[in-house]
Here is the input.
Amino acid sequence: MSQKNREHWGSKTAFVLAAAGSAVGLGNIWKFPYIAHHNGGGKFVLIYLICIAIVGLPVLVAEMMVGRATQKSPVAAIEELSGKGSPWAFIGYLGVAASFVVLSFYIVVAGWVMHYIVLAATNTFAGMQPEQFGKTFGDLYVSPGLNIFWATLFMAITYLVVKGGIKGGIERTTNLLMPGLFVLLILILVWCVSLPNGAFSEALNYLFTGKDEIEGAAVLEALGHSFFTLSLGMGAMLTYGSYLDNKVDLFKAGMWVAILDTVIALVASIIIMSIMFANTESSFGGGPGLLFVNLPQALVQMPGGYFVTLFFFVLVFFAALTSAISLLEVAVAFLIDKGWDRKLATNVMAFSIWIVGIPSALSASAAWKAVFGEVTMFDIAGKTTFFDKMDYLASNWMLPIGGLAIALYVGFSLSSKLRDEQFHLGMNKKSAWHFKPWELFTRFVAPIVIILIILIEAGAVKKDTVNKFFDQILGQNSTVTQQEAKPAKSEK
Ligand code: PHE
Here is the structure.
């Protein structure tokens, strides 16, 4: 467990910024605002915050702990702690596989963001009729050339950063982009306060009070998302933790990462909702359309809209890049710990992931559909394209299973002594009050909750039963149907 030969973060702040950079991504700025709105804000947001605290944070600390204790990436780390051939090492392999799956669709969406930076910078939106916004995105969505071009460029940038190593590449980039992201976010937030129609306070109201009743299934969505948004379950935080030295208080660092991630998701939602509420004409669509259609369409009519649109897409690009870096680093670190040189490992992994990303980039195009049809292989309702399937596979299966395994591994396979020692390193105290609660949450609360989501996802437990169960817990006396659960605001 020597710390000598391994490259390390330059400071605690550098680590927190890099880990927060991994956590804050498309999940925060594109997905969270949409699901928060779709589920009616209020109670949903509260449940999401609870999930982050009772499942996300304990697993986050557990992952960083294994990395720091071994100074190795997932597979090598587990082999060091539990011996070669340990079945737990599957966590590491699953993580490398997940990095392929997540990155392959991440580079496609990040590519769209880059395309939109160009559209915003060249003021293309200014001359558009309302119906052209949908068409612009639709054309991009199905274009094989544009999708490949942008996804390739984004992958190339990610590759260059990771090739530069921990200090020279990753740390340098995240130390620059994360403060940039904070500044842009604050500027836009301040601008939102001045929006007409009381839009800003309406957004706050919606997000924090919202409506009283939510569907039980929304609880599952909140839980699933807390994994994706904190980059858990695939060894990204474990790998970043392996570049930490003993001077860092893991729990404190984890708290910072979780707080930054949550605050940014909330601020992004307030911004997007304010803009949508200020614009009384546009409808509040969801999914990819929210960011790429509704938002530019609403902003184009507002004073200062040019800059806000441009800043917003630049901000999303920063967020996506710092997350993509951590995804590639998981795969690269796996080869480095097998004795490869960083340059070669990065070349091989970036190229392989790029290849795997090609079907995601092409899957909405007419040519792809003509050849392969709608892939019916593992058919899931509403997930028709290859791209959708990759997203579903990772978010709903790979990350929760990986997260469950890590919690059980740290909670039951590792010794209590190792947990105790790692938890208290970097603190001045010998026994911190929050050690026992953290252990309890890692060993029992998080695994039970995750097993429940997996069972429901697998269809072993009926959604109706879940709805009834949560109705009781939440003090609701009737189960709201999917239709009623959709907020009236969307018809605005
Ligand atoms: N946390 C990132 C987001 O919110 C996605 C991600 C998942 C990054 C897993 C790394 C590992 O967009």
Remarks:
- The pocket of phenylalanine is lined by residues 22-23, 25-28, 102, 228-229, 231, 234, 236, 323, 326-327 (CB under 6 Å).
- Residues 183 and 315 are 9 Å apart (CA to CA).
- Residues 90-121 form the longest helix (32 residues).
- Confidence is low (pLDDT under 50) at residues 376-381, 478-492.
